[in-house]
Amino acid sequence: MSAVVQQIGAKISPRIETSDGFSIRKISVEDYEKMIDIGIFDEDDRVELLDGVIIEMNPKKTKHTIVNYLIGEFFYDNFRKQTIVRLQEPIILDDFSEPKPDAVLAQLPLLKYLETHPTAADVLLVVEVSDTTLAKDRRKASNYARAGIVQYLLFNLNTDEIEDYREPAADGYRFKQTHDRTAIFNLVAFPEVEIKVADLLPPESVESAEEMP
Q1: How many domains does the chain divide into?
Q2: Is 51 within the bounds of a domain?
Q3: Is residue 26 scored above 60 in pLDDT?
Q4: Of 16, 134, 175, 182, whose CB has the highest number of CB atoms within 10 Å?
């Protein structure tokens, strides 16, 4: 057995039984982190761990990139003194899931995350921005709910709407509301802050877009 296999395979992970009869062993967060440590993956690899499976993340389109920027700017302007704003950085949901959401608000202090990524108990909000990956990001809602993430915002760039998931439970979120471009909503963690959906999306017209910074 190679040194790499010995190092990574210290624990026996649960099996996943596929519909066609194959048996696949789950990869734990611990093993996934070891893969990163020894160079199997690096920070440039667009992958995440979900339910014990390493998932390749789709390339971002230009609108996705702009919306990520707008979300980051809004969060930094409004919440950076009360939270840690993380953009496209890992969080740990459980022993077998380490996704990389587009944005996260995590509890202070910053140095708490010097040795480990935020866990579900540290996370106040998760945001995913979606165009071609909408079905996958909707399925992620069950992972976030099981982990107890209090609020999950899914930006649907195909319709310029935000799907707002709240009240997590073991079988999914109990509450979902969809906000269109004209809506105003708030966050579970910061109910006093009113957020205009339009402030987190690029303008609809070219003339308005030219006025953006």
Answers
A1: 2
A2: no
A3: yes
A4: 134
Q: How far apart are CA 34 and CA 14, in angstroms?
A: 18
Q: Is the pLDDT of residue 132 over 60?
A: yes
Q: Are residues 111 and 200 in the same domain?
A: yes
- How far, in Å, CA of 202 to CA of 13, rounded? 44
Q: Which domain holds residue 103?
A: 62-209
- Region of 171 please: left (phi>0), alpha (psi -120 to 50) or beta: alpha
DSSP state of 168: E
For residue 47, give the 3-state DSSP assignment.
Answer: strand
d(CA 152, CA 162): 10
Rg (CA), the chain: 18
Cis bond before residue 109 (omega within 30° of 0):
yes
CATH number of the domain enclosing 193: 3.90.1570.10
SS3 state of residue 129: strand
* pLDDT tens per residue across span 57-79: 988 899 999 999 999 999 999 99
Q: What is the pTM of this model?
A: 0.88
- Calpha distance 191→187 (Å, rounded): 5
